[in-house]
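hey m, so remember when u said the tokens were messed up on ur end? i reran from scratch. heres the input so u can diff it against urs
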Amino acid sequence: MKLAYFSGCKIPFYMKDYDLSFKAVMHHLGIELVELPFNCCGYPVRGDSFEISILSAIKNFAIAQKHDLDMITPCKCCFGQFKHAQFWYKTQPALKEKIDDLLALENLLWEGHTKVKHLLSFLTHDIGLEKLGKQIQKRLPPRNVVVQYGCHALRPFSVTGFDNPFVPKIFEQLLGLTGVKVIDWSKSTECCGNPILKSNQELSLKILQNKFNAAQKAGADYICTACTHCQMQYEMVKSDNTINNQNLTTLLYTQILGAALGVSEKKLSETGRLPEDLFKDE
């Protein structure tokens, strides 16, 4: 299977381990990733210019269509933006006409058929839990892990169609295949605080601290993310000594899955320093 890889703006510069581990997992599963000359998904300017944000997203669909490829992204913010753009483009005729005219200036056209998939939904619906489970080469130690869903993929369900926004299960099911013990906690679907980091840093960091406190109270050893912005927010502990991470480590889902698939550690992290107790055989 061949898919156009949309990394988004943040991953190549701030989340290189996500890029590395995502590519390693996809390669292991036999997925060929094609990197195209995409632009920003449009989310950063949604509050300033709705039309520009939609144009930016739809242009990427047009580029993927030109190569007859669907798109996959490990970034839930990008995924959510793409689903919003699809929704408004297809339900607002005047907006569609304006976008089409602007695309035509660049000799581009989108006929509305290109699909965008997030890593988690792709693994669940395209690969399938049963098939993915058969590729697990080693069961990881049953350490307690909580999941951080990320807001942009979950809500609104009528637009994203990702999973039940109130009681999602897709992440837990995928993570459970690796052997770790997925435990419930009170804040799996709550915002990490990153979207307001620049506009209200005090509140953003308070949300983050409450996350760490809740995870520690639930008995977690690790917090697992599959969202660029969530992972960046949790890593704020590296630059802000006012945050107490309760000795919890935040790991990317692609790193945990990669370890269970038997992918070498050097292909999952640039530093190669992943938690030893998690990446040993059970």
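this time it looks ok to me. The chain has twelve helices and eight strands. if urs says something different then somethings off w ur setup not the seq
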